[in-house]
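SECTION: protein entry
WANTED: fold as tokens:
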Amino acid sequence: MINFIYLTLFPQYFHNYFQISLAKKIRERKLLDYQVYNLRDFAVKGQVDDYPYGGGAGMVLKIEPLVAALAAIQEAYPESYLILLSPQGRTFTQTEQISIGDFITMGGEIPALAITDALIRAIPGAIQTESYQQETFQNSQLDFATYTRPEEFAGLKVPAVLL
């Protein structure tokens, strides 16, 4: 049996997915199972993000809840293979009319939601204009390094120029 483990701020996305469609039938046949961890459960008072050092729009996920959550997951599932999704990561691709990656899904719902999520950011008023302008592919770059509190974590420090 394959076991999928998710770390998220929105557990219901995954619970809903595994309660419907072919994923439900595959799970009922005990070919797969899943667990969902809520990142807020690993944060002080549920606070998982903070403002970026050096200014800029939006929020940045804090390192402490991420490290705590990943440690708990790796302790519970020591043989697991960890995949962190990131715009800077290798592209998960597949050629289609419109593709979110080089792979096949059991339906178009998940890719449709991914595309929808990316597109609704462009709707005026959906997010702060500054966030859209700063975070959307400027100069063919996906993003720049961002930092938030604490100033130091596990010997790693925020660059002094940002403080």
